[in-house]
Amino acid sequence: MASNPYDAALAHMTEVVGLQYVITDASALRSAETSTFSTGHRIPGIIRPGNLAEVQECVRVANRFRVPIYPISSGKNWGYGSRVPAADGCFLLDLGRMNRIVDFSEELAYVTVEPGVTQAQLSDFLRERGSKLWMDATGASPACSLIGNTVERGFGHTPYGDHFGNSCGLEIVLPTGRIVQTGFARFPGATAASSYRWGVGPSLDGLFSQSNLGIVTRMTLWLMPAPEYFQAYFFRCEEPEQLPALVDALRPLRLDHTIRGASHIANDYKVLSALEQYPWERAGGVTPLPGALMRELHGELKIGSWNGSGALYGTKRQVKEARRLLRRALGGIADKLQFLDDRTLRMASAFAKPYEFLTGWNLKRTLALLEPVYGLMKGIPTEHPLASTYWRRRTPPPAVMDPDRDGCGLLWASPVAPASGRHASKLTALASGILLDRGFEPMISLTMITERSLACVVSIAFDRELAGEDARALDCYHHLMERLAANGYYSYRLGLLSMARGEQPDSYSDLLRELKRTMDPAGILAPGRYVATDAAVAEKANARTVVDSGATANGGMHAMQSL
Amino acid sequence: MASNPYDAALAHMTEVVGLQYVITDASALRSAETSTFSTGHRIPGIIRPGNLAEVQECVRVANRFRVPIYPISSGKNWGYGSRVPAADGCFLLDLGRMNRIVDFSEELAYVTVEPGVTQAQLSDFLRERGSKLWMDATGASPACSLIGNTVERGFGHTPYGDHFGNSCGLEIVLPTGRIVQTGFARFPGATAASSYRWGVGPSLDGLFSQSNLGIVTRMTLWLMPAPEYFQAYFFRCEEPEQLPALVDALRPLRLDHTIRGASHIANDYKVLSALEQYPWERAGGVTPLPGALMRELHGELKIGSWNGSGALYGTKRQVKEARRLLRRALGGIADKLQFLDDRTLRMASAFAKPYEFLTGWNLKRTLALLEPVYGLMKGIPTEHPLASTYWRRRTPPPAVMDPDRDGCGLLWASPVAPASGRHASKLTALASGILLDRGFEPMISLTMITERSLACVVSIAFDRELAGEDARALDCYHHLMERLAANGYYSYRLGLLSMARGEQPDSYSDLLRELKRTMDPAGILAPGRYVATDAAVAEKANARTVVDSGATANGGMHAMQSL
Known about the structure:
Chain A is an alpha+beta fold. Chain A is built from 18 helices and 19 strands. In chain A, strand 5 and strand 6 (110-113) form a beta hairpin. Chains A and B meet through strand 9, helix 6, helix 9, strand 17 and helix 16 of A and strand 9, helix 6, helix 9, strand 17 and helix 16 of B.
């Protein structure tokens, strides 16, 4: 018999999946433990099951030996922790091999996928069969898992941007190894399993998103019929003070569905980081970016303080009317409002020079930025935004980018605010101030993710190879999260470090922990992921009585090490 | 001390809410036990708490004495069981006194309400303050609770027709008496508590819909900005065989959001029952309605085999384009397609005669039917559809209608199908056959409740005062539910009798029962409601081994009587 539970579990899981699908090579494990920020969680092995039965069997082995497992789909959760588990000592359960597109309906506009299916794979699938359906894509990377992003409640840029809101029919392996299917999918032969979300009786889908209560092994994603006509819009505001009026002008159009997709507003830092790396030379080697240099760059690159994009979908006449309403709403508020469709884009690429002459708009230079954004609004995945994670690096992004491997420092905070100008203004001013004070460029985007909400993403980008930078960035991140919460702006999604910090005890998290104990009595599934462990909560409660809360930042992690 | 737990609990709950808010009068209890179909569940008392703390205290008393309580909001769950609990011997916890509108935002288009707030109350509230927001209403009654309908996942007729899909921020009293708030509402001062659904971490909203896991005491409902222009459409098809083409023509428009509201298609029986009572005299006293008479009525009342309604919302130009697309889609499929707006309606009311001369459409007679339907598509509640519950009665509906009191027999089945012509046709043919075979008129409506789904409602309407009719209707209902399920059409919502029949054991219902045991260890909250009790499941499993499943129909109820 193996000498300790980890070895024993590993031996049994190896029997389940086969030796070639178990990774214990030290360098591979170190790389899986590497994120875009500093974490200390170790991974004893990576297990790659190939099907549902193997996932169940691995879960049973984990229960038998009481060792924690941590499922990932593609593990590209950059800015939030990449592949790194929320607790120390978890086996990584890599579901990437389960990459079948299980069901597809052109008529009802849905696709049912396994966790390993990537954005690129679905995009290719739809194109190859000449489908008239569009997927929604995030800017993360074509190699990202669809399920991974959806269960994290990530978002994209088309009218189907609220990914979790456009999904149903989950297949889940519970922490005990049993399988449940949600909605009508639980009933044999249910005809509406992939078209109707709620099913009958209590609806459990939400329980398995941002959660450690089950492993999602299959899911239906709704797709969007390609519109007859598509037109993107881009606008900008020169002055930062124009933001509240902008948001207040867009909200009614989002509420009445004139704008059906997620309108996206990025500040100058965000746009700049998408266009180029940190201008080390012009900045004279100092950080953060000097204000005077930013003003120069505004002019050179035609960047506003706020830069918007979005798209109109419909028949030619529907889009024409939406364009009229958008023009009317943004008149006197946005300094520049441009529209772009496939025809203009083709012409622009071919005749960039005369186009510039006619319009004053240097299309060629901005096309490099515009094309991927334009594509995203049609649900075409792109690797382009990934380059911005290399912002503070002194070497250019390699051909095959890997932010974890390449020392790119990135921490994302993603507070949600109501879609109101006042909140947009307060939230972004707060975040900007905190980042600038600590020497980081405040890269901020606001996405009108739903009719009433703004999802704000604040990126802290840094160079992990610079001594002390990891710690400075973490300090900035934690301070930012604290100040945002104190002002009522809570994140729609948490990074590893926020989970480890644990929850303030409240009745909601008490209930979650009760459900966790019921559904995962041995506590083997992704401990600490969104649902705090009892040990972490107890430790936090104890710590609070003697020291300030800062000292307990790693409380959750410490408790895990006893496993 | 009181002699039995019921008396003791009643005494304590009376102390909590005050004597004037406890009803134990025999005739009031008998009337609360009366539904639109036969049930045997008894109610020992009605408790009417006035606020959150009183609800909590009543729940604690129920735990202490292990007596079951059954919360209702307005209790107008007609066709599914009215106020009658899913188990015998439950105290009714009537939340009708908690009727505050707690929060409202014109800017972000939402309202936060307590369970006692009715459709009429919110409608008045919006009108009185000159709000530019529309609510969504169901056809049930102006006196229906908004929360009651929403947690049952009921639906209406505007673009906000999927009620539960347009809600967030639930406040819940757990079966232990603790309070949780869902989404961001759980965090102090969260700015997006009423605008963003998911919050962070596992999302629990779904757990508390169609459920017995908590009492919803507060909830945010999203409202719709009134459009610049509103136009209703009505169409009909003479032949039953036109249905599949109709659904297939409408689906793309629903999927691409040209039609944003729920398009509604009703068969001739459904429309007839909305226009008048059973034509006893012309039918020569026989049921079901003779086919030849129905054909006569088609001509007289301008009813088609299928009759559709819906509305277009937007600017004048948006509606104009939607009208063009709808005309194109239904050309050659619908026999008649008419549009109606406020102006036409006013003119029609004034000039019904010349209008008929010009258009051939007898507007005056149909206005009686059209006006409430027209209003519903603007979210204006109406009592009109309630009259159809008197269909088979031999006396006309009284001024103040009460189907429970008045012996109206009504059983609703509400199977969901994908929005495909093939399924619409198969489902409605199946239901029609079963009802006609058993002597009932198959009143059927199909609502395109979401982009991909049809919610079908099949009404079995009968006269409860007729000997043997209760039993015949129940037999028909159970057979219908069984055949629908066997063909893959499962109901989006269950009536009392389907709940009592219990679940087929599967891992999903196993999980629900585990959650129920964890969250409600004493089993005091609405036992048997959507989540089967352990006793009922055990009994059903035993019964299945010796007799056919029909014999166990009351398994759940029987188990309850031991309480």
